[in-house]
Write a structure and sequence with these properties.
Protein name: Acetone carboxylase
Radius of gyration: 12 Å
Order of helices and strands: EEHEH
Structural class: alpha+beta
Shape: globular
Amino acid sequence: MGPVSEEKPICSAKGCRADAVWVLAWNNPKLHAPERRKTWLACEEHREHLSRFLGVRGFLKDVVPLADWESAPS
């Protein structure tokens, strides 16, 4: 896991500047090793939309509250 690098993390949804409260961990199995996790951040409003986007493609691996992600051991 590990810390998110932005000082004030914001939502990854296009045009959204809201504070992020969720981490969507994902990978593209055609490009990434199975253990690799890329992350998108989501506000409360966009969590479901971004999760569906990744889920339909089979990319979504986990959805975790940002606070839990940042406090998890690396």
